[in-house]
Amino acid sequence: MKKKSTFQKITLVIVWVMIISMIGSLVLTALSGLGLMSFG
Q1: How far is it, in rounded angstroms, from Cα 30 to Cα 6?
Q2: Sign of the dihedral through C-alpha 27, 32, 36, 39
Q3: What is the pLDDT of residues 24-38, one digit of tens each?
């Protein structure tokens, strides 16, 4: 095994950040209409 543990960790962090940001944006976009009605 090569020493790619740190590189793999950084890659996983970047991938998770991208996935979470995409899901978060989709959730916010979906809840934007309902949120305006609920909080409005």
Answers
A1: 36
A2: positive
A3: 999 988 888 777 766
